């Protein structure tokens, strides 16, 4: 079975993604070189951002700690329910630390807005968002993303960690899923 056959078209190739992730890692390294001598905490929003964060972490030339959160706002649907639940919380304290949330896609923005509020209550030195994709979504919540990989259309996107019903995460490219697959 060739999963790429289920794509209507490819948005970003493996090489385009690698180049952009490298540039984002370089920007983070430059921005935090002076103010975060003891390192940063990179928080992965599971499961979609796991591949992205692994690649991003290797491009950041500073000490860093990786931690993980699992949240749910989609269930098995294709649109966010708007109700966010923490399924797995951080393993370590972020108080006084510089935190970067690594997210796969900013869609409705509801999950990120919830996460930022939740993590801010833990008194980090700073919180920034690094998202691989920002979707052109109507009525998107106002979320400040310091690092954005790509702007993308309001389509159903899969690959490079993004899924539909837990499939397609392992595609090396990012593409638009054919509507007949999820209709």
Structure explained in plain terms:
This protein is of the alpha/beta class. It has one domain (17-154): Rossmann fold, CATH 3.40.50.2020. Helices cover 24% and strands 31% of the residues. The chain has 4 helices and 9 strands; from the N terminus they run E-H-E-H-E-E-E-H-E-E-E-E-H. The protein has helices at residues 14-32, 50-59, 110-120, 179-182, and strands spanning 7-12, 40-46, 64-72, 85-88, 98-106, 126-135, 147-152, 157-158, 174-177. Strands 4-3-2-5-6-7 form a 6-stranded mixed sheet, sandwiched between helices. A 3-stranded antiparallel sheet has the order 1-9-8. The model has no long low-confidence stretch (mean pLDDT 91).
Topology (SSEs and partners):
Elements: E1 7-12, H1 14-32, E2 40-46, H2 50-59, E3 64-72, E4 85-88, E5 98-106, H3 110-120, E6 126-135, E7 147-152, E8 157-158, E9 174-177, H4 179-182
Parallel strand pairs: 2-3, 2-5, 5-6, 6-7
Antiparallel strand pairs: 1-9, 3-4, 8-9
* Percent helix range: 10-25%
Q: What value does the Rg take, in angstroms?
A: 16 Å
The chain-level mean pLDDT equals 91
Largest beta sheet: what is the strand line-up?
Answer: 4-3-2-5-6-7
Biggest β-sheet description:
6 strands, mixed
Count the E strands: 9
Low-confidence stretches: none
């Amino acid at each position: 079975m060739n999963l790429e056959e289920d794509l209507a078209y490819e948005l970003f190739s493996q090489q385009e993604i690698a180049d952009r992730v490298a540039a984002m890692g370089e920007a983070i390294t430059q921005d935090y070189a002076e103010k975060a001598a003891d390192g940063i905490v990179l928080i992965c929003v599971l499961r979609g951002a796991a591949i992205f964060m692994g690649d991003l972490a290797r491009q950041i030339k500073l000490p860093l700690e990786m931690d993980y959160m699992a949240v749910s706002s989609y269930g098995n649907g294709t649109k966010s329910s708007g109700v966010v639940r923490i399924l797995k919380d951080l393993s370590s304290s972020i108080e006084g630390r510089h935190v970067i949330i690594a997210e796969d896609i900013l869609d409705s923005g509801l999950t990120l807005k919830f996460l930022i509020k939740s993590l801010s209550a833990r008194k980090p030195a700073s919180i920034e968002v690094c998202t691989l994709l920002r979707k052109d979504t109507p009525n998107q919540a106002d979320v400040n993303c310091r690092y954005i990989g790509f702007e993308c259309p309001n389509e159903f996107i899969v690959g490079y960690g993004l899924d539909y019903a837990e499939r397609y995460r392992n595609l090396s490219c990012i593409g638009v899923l054919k509507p007949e697959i999820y209709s």
